[in-house]
Amino acid sequence: MRVLVATDLSDAGLLSIEVLLGCNPELFERVTLVHAIELDHYMAGGSIPEVIEWSRERLAEETESLADAGFVTDYRVEQGPAADVVQDIAAEIAADLIIVTDRGRRGAPGRLLGSTAERIAQAGEIPVLVERVEEREAAWCRIGEGSPFARPLVAADLDQTLRRLAIVAGRLPGVESARVVHVAAPGSDIAEAHDFIEAEIAPTPLEDAEVVVVEGRDPAEALIAEAQASDATLIMLAPRRHGLIGRVVFGSVALSLLRESRIPLLFA
After folding, report:
1. Are 152 and 180 in contact (CB under 8 A)?
2. What domains appear along the chain, each with residue ranges and CATH number?
3. What is each CA distance from 135 to 110, 140, 181, in whole angstroms?
4. Per residue in 163-195, pLDDT tens?
5. How many CB atoms lie within 10 A of CB 81?
6. Which parts of the chain sit beneath pLDDT 70?
């Protein structure tokens, strides 16, 4: 698996690199660290060459740490809008996954997923892992521990997105077990939903995954409860795409999960 890790080089942003340290490096072909320098963020500070040099030195340190842990790594520092830089480099290196961190709503009232992370998650076809972090005693920490890929919970809609999610889940590094969960509206045909899900995942690497269909009026709440009950390390879901250019939009369930879940989210 080729992974692009996007970081703004803040303490919280650098935790996206720490995500990998709980994983087996042999499962990764290459890890590329990327920092984008948006010029308007530095207009009041030092010169651009100085900022570029400092950024390269910082990423070189992180690259060395990953290399010491057994990862094959490189890094890139580019100028331009962060979401565009990340997506362009991800396409260039044929990345299978992008990793970013999110401080959540706690960082600022009404804030829902940092604007850069949101644009990255919405921009393209490459799956994006949004790692959850929080501040504890004046230090930023990952909310979870170990590998976020160990026990994914796949949030299943009864449509064409399910098979794609199952394929992506089956390719994640170091999966120990997986559950496919559908939250049905009260009064729905549970057996029919169960049969549909099993048929959809049968041709995928998740063919042996546990399939669970539960009733619930609030799908996000039910998914979080299921994830907590099963000790899931990740919730996977498919954001919606619409229009001629396939623009990604977050529906109400995705927005609620982004607001409420303390478990990492993977959009695929």
Report:
1. no
2. 2-142 (3.40.50.620), 152-267 (3.40.50.620)
3. 17, 4, 31
4. 999 999 999 999 999 999 999 999 999 999 999
5. 15
6. 40-46, 103-115, 123-124, 240-251
